[in-house]
Specification:
alpha/beta
Length: 288
């Protein structure tokens, strides 16, 4: 999908947020934001929205000297989510459909996003998702596909929510082999290999890197290991809005799980902003 004018204020908010997380020096924050604005002015709006992010974060990183602005916030998110796991696991295991309950828990974790100007309450998100279900819900298609699946590639999204992903992956392993993929370096608050180790994901399944330090999947810069895993998977389970933005036009058997957090993505799907989505890319025609 392509960016639009609506992306510009969002990108600027991200620049401000990254600058504030990078340094307490207000003068340096202003310099970083100014540099991001300068670069943004020259960017064409014919790229994928999350790919424009790299220019914004590169500007902030170069001016402030901070490689990972959200490092401490990611650790805090991981620890908060880990503390909730025992209770959520008990709830999943006691449900009528543990796999679906684990999908809902993983979806609730998608509220954790440092890239949007919204506060999050993970506890409240869990309650809302468990009680209300999804607005676009292709779980029946996923359940049918899983019966024939021998190899599933799970694309992780943010730190914090990656802890809740372990509960879903525990359930998925009852049906198929699972490999997880994380980013190869800092990209907003996306999960990296360090986060996967911190939440115990590396003890659960093989974990590979995408090959790029950018939100979503940058196919041109993806590692050969990731491309091979992607090609060999019967199902690609893609968490987060950025993965949707970068993979929505691919033909592989992809199931997207995320909450719509911007008007551009909401319009692309024909839904309201804030809609929760569990969607097969092969069934997208009926949702748009």
């Amino acid at each position: 999908m392509k960016a639009s004018l609506d992306c510009i204020p969002c990108l600027m908010r991200q620049a401000v947020r990254a600058a504030v997380f990078s340094t307490d020096d207000t003068a340096l924050q202003r310099r970083a934001v100014n540099e991001a604005m300068t670069r943004l002015a020259d960017l064409p709006l014919d790229d994928i929205p999350v790919f424009l992010n790299r220019h914004i974060y590169a500007a902030v990183r170069e001016v402030t000297g901070t490689a990972d602005p959200f490092a401490s916030a990611k650790t805090e998110s991981n620890q908060k989510a880990l503390a909730l796991l025992p209770g959520i696991r008990t709830r999943i295991e006691g449900s009528f459909n543990p796999l679906y309950a684990a999908v809902e828990a993983a979806l609730a974790g998608n509220v954790i996003d440092m890239g949007v100007e919204q506060a999050y309450d993970l506890d409240d998100g869990l309650e809302t998702t468990f009680s209300n279900g999804n607005s676009i819900d292709d779980y029946p298609l996923f359940s049918d596909a899983l019966e024939q699946c021998k190899n599933l590639l799970y694309l992780c999204d943010n730190a914090g929510e990656i802890a809740l992903d372990t509960l879903l992956i525990e359930q998925l392993k009852k049906y198929t082999a699972v490999t997880a993929a994380v980013k190869s370096g800092p990209a907003i608050n996306d999960a990296t290999l360090a986060d996967a180790r911190e939440v115990g994901l590396t003890d659960l399944v093989p974990v590979i890197e995408t090959g790029a330090a950018i939100a979503g999947v940058d196919w041109d810069n993806a590692s050969e290991e990731f491309k091979r895993a992607f090609a060999e998977a019967d199902i690609i389970f893609a968490k987060g809005q950025a993965n949707f933005e970068t993979l929505d036009e691919r033909d592989e058997n992809i199931f997207f799980l995320f909450k719509t957090k911007c008007p551009v993505v909401a319009r692309a799907l024909g839904v309201k902003e804030g809609t929760t989505v569990f969607m097969s890319n092969r069934a997208r025609g009926r949702a748009s």
